[in-house]
Specification:
Chain lengths: 507, 499
């Protein structure tokens, strides 16, 4: 380690950037874009350096920066990385500059405010992944809502205000139940061990060593509080209804990638708070959640098939993806969680790439309706080629990243004592359906005759190729060599898995 | 007590010094007002007096009691513990902001009169009496003094019918409340023969305390809750709130919604927790159900409002419910008392900052004869006056309890207090109503940022208003990001600040 609080740096730099933007002159949009991009890019560099210094062989939290924040209540500012959070942390740091570049000249109205909100959103998402104190986690988790609601509400499509309101209310309301669960956990822990703390590492340790023993009903209630918040965020059927509207009404540029990141905070939270902190209650709920996850996989796929709007197709496809991730998490073994994390990363990259494709099409044609498109491969072969790769990555074609995730989730679920083969036998239908709806969308947009309305459609510019190409390249590279994603998390996941079996044995 | 000593009736003057400054300076100011043409100067002098009082309150070591001794039993009538100190400072802070808000508001409305500022100071003194009172008589004095001044303040814009209506409504409901309270005090005194809170608790614990006395005491407590229920707008005694809040001059509404609540809650909490702790088994369930009703009534009532001032009135009912959670937490178990009382003070600090900012923005939109309080008038405010919109956004986020604003830590505190008191179901209702409240707070924010202005609304900002808004908005962020200082203050009083 090089003595610098790298994680704090990467975390706070975007906020500094957002505030700095407010002091720039309002009428120079290009300057605002450049400054914002510099902040986003430097944050990415720092995040990559932090990840490079991460000790892959050590389980648990590393590179901790901490100080007492509210000493009177035992709440600390503590940020760190472990094998679970490191990849989400990198993904968020990567997608922000991509979103900034993709937004480009698309947003004309109040560019300064838009870029500031993007950076503020990056700050809150990064914070969610690195917070090591549960109250700090809650703060960042909720903080994501404010910039997102404003981004949708101010720059979105026609129904933007409705979408922003629905998005905020769903997520805010659901998270409050998590707050209750946190208060309960915090107070119970304080009463049983005499230590009032929100530190996740301490809480996990207390659970593992049996210092904290919740009675069954209490543990299940607490689990319920956490579960509602994360299930809405992921989102799991039937809590998903905010998502298609929010995704469809968000801005048409590629900055929507970041919306996808919010879903990942849900999956991440489940690993942390359900599997790690409340293993017994999680195992108890696993069969029921597994059923919901399978329904999500199938429902998302079927609903996606019925959509004409590219962004809606993609929105529902993420519901399907997150269903797989949910199965992996509730398998509660190292394999399943490895797969779930990979699945979420793959969804972030591949769906993110497809959102860029959608942005490129909207920028040229002004519509996302697949019925008005068609034959775009002829004028835009590069766009078509990259889009097809991303589609295959999203479907889970072997050799691409989505497959690495899905396959590992299947293995994990099959061998899991909490779930079992039945779930995956039904869930696998979702993979077939994914091929159906994504390829159908691809066929309608890119294949066939070129309509007269689409004459003059131009191929990607150099910058668009670089952005889209970068995301697609990652999907391919990680797909070919998934171990580069798997390896750093194994130490932590083995520890989680042994913690789970230990806690279940204690019961 | 047997020996009649010619003891001084008060000792340890420092405990009442803050109150004495407020009352004394108010009287002097009334006289000064006669000779000063510029009423604004009177306002600034009032700020000075209130600030002096605040300094006196901070430097006074807490834990001291025993001023204005009860002549009969020599029990203290007025004291200063960290709880009282916190409430006193909240009241003073709110009073200062109220005066700042009124500085340009009164002349713009054509109701500028110098006595406004001394009246605010007197009301603040009364709230301090409520916070520090340790005796039924002291508490009743404080409450009545406060109410009478508020009747005047509510009708201060008396050319306007709405203001007169507000004053009359408040008077009638206030009269009812007083009736309940007097009767309650009579019953309690009749049952225990004591008026000092500590002695009441001791008397009711004696083995000689009979069942019939106990019945009287319980009825007294019930009436007490009703009486205070009116004052803090607790459901189902909150019906007057929207009309009175809407009709009163806006700075007065701001003052009523926070400072008056602070005083009444302080007295209610002190009575229930310190005098009637032994009867908690009876009053706690009643209060818990009332708190649930209050949170529901306030937050559901606010959903349908399109008049922002009225919406804030309903929201203040909802927040009364959250403060009540802290009181309930304090009363639930003896071990939980400190946590509960701390959470009440902390919540009041956060609520004061948020509400003052919100009302400040409304004042900036209000001019004579035409109030721009509808949601439509807020449309596109961000484009017209970004700073006002930012202040309003912070206020709304804080009232909703979004993290990194003061309101979040406040909610965390009261929710913890009531959960730790063993009433987890109330925490759940609190959470559910918070979720509902997000709807109407968010609606204001989205209106300001996303819509186009529907009509031209002029905004007025003067020095006083600007200072008030900056203080409140920065306070919301500061307490939200670095709550540690306020937390240690409510835990240990002024000592924590190194004084």
């Amino acid at each position: 380690m090089i003595g610098l609080p790298l994680i704090s740096l990467a975390l706070w730099l975007p906020l500094v950037g957002a505030l700095a933007l407010l002091f720039l002159p309002k009428e120079q949009p290009q300057l605002a874009r450049t400054v914002a991009l510099v902040f986003g890019f430097v944050t990415l560099v720092i995040a990559v350096v932090a990840a490079a210094l991460f000790d892959r062989s050590a389980p648990g939290f590393q590179m901790i920066d901490a100080f007492d924040w509210i000493p009177g209540l035992g709440i600390r500012y503590a940020v760190s990385l472990d094998g679970v959070s490191i990849w989400f942390f990198l993904l968020a740091a990567l997608l922000t500059p991509v979103a900034q570049l993709a937004s480009g000249a698309f947003i004309q109205r109040d560019v300064r405010g838009f870029q500031a909100l993007l950076l503020a959103l990056e700050f809150s998402v990064l914070g969610t992944f690195v917070a090591q104190d549960m109250f700090l986690f809650y703060i960042f988790f909720e903080l994501t809502l404010v910039p997102t609601a404003l981004l949708i509400g101010r720059w979105g499509g026609e129904q933007r205000v409705k979408a922003a309101t629905q998005f905020f209310l769903y997520n805010f309301g659901a998270s409050l139940f998590m707050l209750v669960a946190m208060i309960g956990l915090y107070l119970t822990h304080a009463a049983q061990t005499g230590l009032a703390t929100g530190d996740i590492a301490v809480l996990i340790d207390s659970v593992a060593t049996g210092k904290l023993s919740l009675d069954t009903t209490m543990a299940r209630l607490l689990f319920g509080g956490f579960f509602i918040a994360f299930a809405v965020k992921m989102p799991l059927w039937p809590f998903h209804t905010w998502l298609p509207l929010a995704h469809a009404e968000a801005t048409d540029d590629g900055s929507i990638d970041i919306l996808g990141l919010l879903q990942k905070t849900g999956g991440y939270g489940l690993i942390r708070f359900a599997v790690q902190l409340l293993p017994a209650a999680t195992a108890w709920a696993a069969p029921a959640v597994g059923v919901l996850a399978v329904i999500s996989i199938l429902y998302g796929a079927v609903a996606a098939y019925a959509q004409r709007d590219i962004k809606r197709v993609l929105a529902y496809s993420t519901v399907s993806h997150m269903g797989f991730a949910m199965l992996g998490i509730f398998a509660m073994n190292a394999l399943g969680i490895t797969g779930a994390i990979t699945m979420m990363l793959a969804s972030g990259l591949a769906t993110g790439a497809l959102f860029l494709v959608s942005a490129a099409i909207v920028a040229r044609r002004g519509t996302r309706d697949v019925k008005q498109l068609g034959g775009l491969w002829l004028p835009a072969p590069i766009l078509g080629g990259l889009a097809l790769t991303a589609v295959f990555g999203s479907i889970g074609l072997p050799g691409l990243m989505g497959f690495a995730g899905e396959f590992t989730v299947m293995q994990g679920t099959w061998t899991s004592s909490a779930l079992g083969p039945a779930y995956i036998i039904v869930g696998v239908i979702g993979v077939i359906l994914a091929a159906a709806y994504l390829l159908t969308m691809f066929r309608r947009v890119f294949m066939g005759e070129l309509r007269p309305a689409n004459e003059g459609f131009t191929d990607l510019t150099g910058r668009e190729i670089a952005l889209l190409g970068a995301l697609v390249a990652l999907v391919v590279i990680i797909g070919i060599y998934p171990n580069m994603v798997f390896a750093p998390m194994q130490a932590t996941l083995q520890q989680i898995a042994s913690g789970v079996s230990q806690a279940l044995a204690l019961k | 007590m047997s020996e009649k000593l010619p003891l001084p009736l008060f000792e340890n003057i420092g405990v009442v010094l803050p109150m004495a400054i407020a009352f004394g300076w108010a009287i002097i100011l009334l006289v000064i007002d006669l000779f000063v043409a510029d009423k604004r100067a009177v306002g600034w002098l009032a700020v000075l007096g209130l600030a002096a009082s605040a300094v006196a309150a901070i430097i006074q070591p807490t834990g001291t009691e025993g001023t204005f001794l009860n002549a009969e039993s020599r029990a203290p009538m007025i004291g200063l513990d960290p709880f009282a100190q916190g409430i006193v400072l909240v009241a003073l802070g709110v009073a200062i902001i109220t005066v700042l808000l009124a500085l340009e508001y009164l002349p713009r409305q054509g109701i500028e009169r110098g006595e406004f500022y001394p009246l605010v100071m007197l009301a603040t003194g009364a709230i301090m009496l409520l916070a520090q009172g340790q005796d039924l008589i002291a508490l009743f004095l404080g409450l009545e003094l406060l109410s009478i001044i508020l009747y005047i303040l509510a009708g201060f814009a008396h050319a306007r019918v709405a203001s007169e209506e507000a004053a009359i409504k408040y008077l009638i409901f206030g009269g009812f409340a007083t009736g309940f309270l007097v009767f309650a005090i009579a019953l309690i005194y009749g049952a225990t023969g004591k008026s000092s809170l500590g002695e009441i608790a001791a008397a009711s614990a004696l083995p000689t305390f009979t069942a019939s006395d106990n019945l009287l005491l319980l009825i007294g407590i019930g009436l007490l809750i009703v009486g205070f229920g009116y004052k803090v707008s607790m459901a189902p005694f909150h019906m007057w709130t929207p009309d009175v809040y809407e009709g009163s001059p806006t700075p007065v509404t701001a003052f009523m919604s926070v400072a008056v609540k602070a005083g009444a809650f302080a007295a209610l909490a002190r009575l229930l927790v310190f005098a009637f702790g032994a009867q908690a088994a009876v009053w706690l369930p009643i209060l818990a159900i009332t708190a649930a009703l209050t949170m529901l009534a306030g937050n559901i009532g606010a959903v349908v409002q399109t008049n922002v001032k009225r919406m804030l009135a309903y929201s203040s009912v909802g927040h009364a419910g959250y403060i009540l959670l802290g009181v309930i937490g304090a009363g639930a178990t003896a071990a939980n008392r400190e946590l509960g009382l701390q959470s009440v003070v902390f919540y009041l600090v956060t609520y004061a900052l948020s509400n003052m900012a919100a009302f400040g923005v409304l004042i900036a939109l209000e001019r004579r004869g035409e109030a721009a309080w509808s949601l439509d008038d807020l449309s596109g405010l961000f484009g017209r006056s970004p700073w006002l919109a930012t202040a309003m956004t912070l206020a709304m986020l804080s009232l909703a309890g979004v993290p990194l604003t003061a309101g979040f830590v406040g909610k965390l505190y009261v929710f913890s207090a009531v959960w730790s008191g063993g009433l987890g179901w109330l925490t759940l209702i609190g959470v559910a109503t918070s979720a509902i409240s997000a709807f109407f707070y968010l609606r204001v924010i989205l209106r300001m940022f996303t819509s186009e202005p529907s009509r031209e609304v002029q905004t007025f900002t003067g020095t006083g208003l600007r200072v008030a808004l900056v203080v409140a908005a920065v306070g919301i962020l500061l307490v939200g990001v670095l709550p540690g200082l306020v937390v240690s203050f409510v835990q240990h009083g002024g000592v924590a600040l190194g004084l």
